[in-house]
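User: Please fill in residues for this 662-position structure.
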């Protein structure tokens, strides 16, 4: 492989330098000191530490296991057996259990009386679990699952919100070596069956409804359809949540009725822990299998060294059980941080609710979507002035690109004492690929750099690394949390085609990225949504930044319809306007002028239309590709299930526009 082709040396404004006391006050600083005391290498800065982590992955991941005290029931033969991708073999011969590291007793159970879980919802009153109570419930749930016949390799699935029962059931499932999967109850029956049906579960946990803001949502009909669509399910466990009963089910209290041992069955490092599902907005959802060892090592590294979490800390990050952020949230228990679980409408009763919860719970890491941060900025929210957020050390942001204005807003609101950690990764690795840490500076509009142990680069279409220009986000060396495969893909053909089809032996993630010479990164959107105008590829993220800074525009979506004859094609912009604004010729000219001035003449759309709402999935990602496919004649049901849309009707205008084009 040739050296990366570099273009330009400019760097964005420095927003926050690395703190002078980083080695004394942070987990990554403690890791550096531990490395030196153990006779390992010494590092002066993050770039040198990162280089070592990808050049010598065996030494790095062995150090992660040692620093965080990974408990192997059977020690590994070595760290990395096979290095080739796909098929890299991590810690061959090792046996362990993820759940043991999450709730197993470290010493004498001295933390039994301390709070492990705080849960808030719009369906029932606040709940609290101490570490001791959590361990007792996991032991009881494990015993209950065993009575139902659940053992190693069996699948347990949950149609549950982000509530403590979901956490307890997951950990009990993992303790047995069984395999977990979950969907949020806002998903419709078809979407759930499309996912769960692939893995043939034997036990289904479900609620009969939930509260969303002031609205009560009845899901009994959907549960009946799901049960009918999953013929392998032998037992249905009803978690009481809301006013409705579910006849013909086992109650949650009955599942936990008998005490049990807090035991953890050792499983091989690569044994399936859980199945995560892709969004289903570009085809049949992929059933992505993650392993006990891979997730354990990755989340110990991520949560400790990047998120700077430790015993006594608390993380608040709104998520549903259908997003990988739920799996990341509950993994905070691995480093003995406590978690805040939130279910319901994240903007109810108002946009400040999450900040109020962060203050009430004493969160040290507050995670949020970029869309939420930008909405708070637009609404004039002053979180650090309105609430006591003095315990917050990090603001995390993930799910979509954060515009430069969002960086400046966080810095202005919280000052230099709080680290803004913007990241990007995904379901496929169940973690970050690029993000920040206390050992990295923060620059306006840029993600600080590749995560430790992640050899992330940008490739051009020829498979050559590039710096300073846009390219495909790739990973060139293996990492433990790469999936062990897709469920129902025994030969691995779909897995290889998804990640390794374009660059053999190199993981292609599907994002469009630009790395600066200093290592920082800008995610420019999904590479399959990249605009190609006159042979020049344009990222969508910078497009949205320019358009959505206009006061009249609430949101926007851009698609490019290619010309089969090789011409420029048609660039179409769809805008969601603020209340009371009309899309007239004057506003169209303002939008076009902003794009021409801030970006380039190539960015000026051929057509600007209004839509009532921009289509997004439930994690806030804009759905450029499904909209494009519909405009080109695809049926909506072949493109995306309404259940995965944040607004089920958001693609309907594109169906109507497609009829007009036809």
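Assistant: Residues filled in for all 662 positions:
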């Amino acid at each position: 492989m040739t050296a990366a082709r570099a273009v330009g040396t400019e760097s964005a404004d420095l927003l926050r330098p690395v703190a002078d006391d980083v080695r004394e006050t942070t987990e990554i600083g403690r890791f550096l000191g531990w490395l030196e005391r153990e006779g390992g290498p010494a590092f002066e800065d993050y770039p040198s530490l990162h280089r070592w982590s990808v050049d010598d992955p065996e030494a790095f991941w062995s150090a992660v296991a040692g620093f965080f005290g990974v408990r192997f029931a059977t020690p590994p033969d070595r760290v990395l057996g096979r290095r080739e991708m796909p098929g890299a073999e991590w810690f061959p011969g090792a046996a362990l259990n993820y759940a043991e590291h999450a709730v197993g007793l470290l010493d004498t159970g001295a933390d039994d009386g301390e709070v492990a879980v705080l849960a808030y919802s719009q369906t029932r009153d606040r709940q609290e679990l101490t570490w001791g109570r959590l361990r007792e419930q996991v032991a009881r749930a494990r015993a209950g699952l065993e009575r139902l016949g659940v053992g190693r390799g069996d699948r347990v699935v949950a149609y549950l919100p982000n509530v403590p029962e979901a956490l307890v059931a997951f950990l009990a499932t993992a303790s047995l070596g069984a395999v977990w999967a979950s969907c949020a109850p806002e998903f419709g029956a078809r979407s759930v069956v499309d996912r769960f049906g692939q893995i043939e579960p034997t036990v289904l946990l479900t609620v009969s409804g939930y509260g969303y803001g002031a609205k009560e949502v009845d899901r009994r009909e959907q549960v009946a359809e799901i049960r009918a669509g999953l013929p392998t399910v032998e037992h249905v466990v009803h978690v009481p949540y809301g006013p409705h009963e579910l006849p013909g089910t086992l109650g949650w209290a009955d599942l936990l009725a008998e005490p049990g041992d807090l035991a953890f069955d050792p499983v091989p490092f690569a044994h399936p822990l859980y199945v995560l599902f892709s969004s289903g907005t570009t085809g049949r959802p992929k059933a992505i299998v993650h392993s006990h060892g891979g997730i354990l090592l990755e989340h110990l590294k991520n949560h400790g060294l990047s998120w700077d979490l430790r015993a006594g800390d608390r993380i608040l990050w709104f998520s549903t059980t259908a997003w990988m952020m739920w799996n990341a949230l509950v993994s905070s228990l691995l480093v003995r941080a406590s978690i805040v679980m939130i279910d319901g409408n994240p903007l109810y009763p108002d946009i400040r609710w999450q900040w109020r919860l962060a203050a009430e719970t004493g969160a040290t890491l507050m995670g949020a979507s970029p869309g939420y941060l930008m909405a708070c900025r637009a609404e004039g929210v002053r979180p650090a002035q309105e609430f006591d957020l003095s315990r917050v050390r990090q603001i995390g942001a993930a799910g979509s690109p954060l515009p430069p204005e969002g960086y400046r807003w966080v810095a202005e609101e919280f000052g230099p004492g709080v680290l803004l950690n913007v990241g990007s990764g995904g379901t496929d690795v169940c973690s970050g690929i690029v993000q920040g840490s206390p050992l990295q500076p923060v620059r306006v509009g840029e993600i600080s750099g590749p995560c430790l142990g992640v050899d992330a680069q940008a490739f051009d279409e020829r498979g050559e690394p590039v710096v300073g220009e846009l390219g495909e986000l790739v990973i060139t060396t293996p990492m433990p949390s790469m999936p062990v495969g897709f469920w129902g893909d025994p030969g691995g053909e779909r897995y290889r085609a998804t990640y390794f089809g374009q660059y053999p032996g190199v993981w292609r993630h599907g994002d469009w990225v630009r790395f600066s010479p200093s290592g920082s990164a800008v995610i420019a959107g999904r590479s399959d949504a990249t605009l190609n105008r006159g042979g020049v590829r344009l990222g969508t993220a910078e497009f949205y930044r320019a358009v959505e800074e206009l006061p009249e525009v609430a949101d926007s979506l851009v698609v490019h319809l290619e010309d089969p004859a090789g011409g420029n094609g048609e660039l179409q912009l769809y805008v969601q306007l603020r209340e009371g604004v009309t899309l007239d010729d004057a506003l169209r000219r303002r939008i076009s002028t902003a794009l021409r001035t801030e970006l380039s003449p190539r960015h000026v759309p051929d057509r600007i239309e209004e839509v009532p709402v921009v289509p997004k999935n439930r994690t806030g990602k804009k759905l450029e590709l499904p909209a494009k496919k519909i405009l080109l004649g695809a049926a909506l049901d072949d493109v995306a299930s309404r259940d995965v849309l944040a607004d089920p009707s958001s693609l309907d205008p594109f169906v109507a526009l497609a009829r007009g084009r036809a």
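For context: The longest helix spans residues 131-147.
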